[in-house]
Amino acid sequence: xxxxxxxxxxxxxxxxxxxxxxxxxxxxxxxxxxxxxxxxxxxxxxxxxxxxxxxxxxxxxxxxxxxxxxxxxxxxxxxxxxxxxxxxxxxxxxxxxxxxxxxxxxxxxxxxxxxxxxxxxxxxxxxxxxxxxxxxxxxxxxxxxxxxxxxxxxxxxxxxxxxxxxxxxxxxxxxxxxxxxxxxxxxxxxxxxxxxxxxxxxxxxxxxxxxxxxxxxxxxxxxxxxxxxxxxxxxxxxxxxxxxxxxxxxxxxxxxxxxxxxxxxxxxxxxxxxxxxxxxxxxxxxxxxxxxxxxxxxxxxxxxxxxxxxxxxxxxxxxxxxxxxxxxxxx
Length: 331
Prior knowledge:
Aminopeptidase; 11 helices
């Protein structure tokens, strides 16, 4: 019989995450970052069988307006052997129902080909299920040879020959790093957090941070910010300026991050999401094809779930309608 209890100590929780090669978004540090910078609280639960831990889940909890109470989300959870994922997820859902009284639990585990079964409903994603994955279990030479694009391998070597140097980032690098990030976001059209969020992340993610910058003649060209456990190196944020693109700095930087992830003991390197854009084209130069996880699923925990989803859909439709009217008014 499975028993579920809460864990309150960082080392005890992270040891469990490492035991099952869990995702860095299931690490204690990620939960603390979300709690420090947003409307979330983090709770960690372990599932045991006859006194032996067999899995667990870090649950982020967000209060909702009356009468919905709260929602739960376990990014890339649970942590466990794949063969036991369904029963661990079900046990954690029941814990949320009893102890949080939330309307639903959302999960999006990084697995393929698993049917979660009755009770779980496909839902809107937070993290993309289509991504690009590099297997880090081979030796470094084999990993390099297996990079999909010959051009990627050429550009990695060329950047090094042209004097691009990659190194771990320090706190003093945050300001120029964020300047590059703002430039990249403006050109590629994606939103950013406030700068304070990334300053908080530099501290909160201590122990799983792998942040690197590429330079040429002392000038910063690009950066790549990963979170890494024994399971996965996960790309969080990155950017490159025009000079960095010219010198192919982002190719050497990504290879540096891949090497560091392998040295850390990660089993896979996740380039974090594929869309139909230039950034995704760049990511696909490093892999032989996309990987598609099973997707996002909700477990309704009470009768309010359907009403909450209907209200969220209505609000989303109204926002889209207002945005459409605003766009029309600008022509």
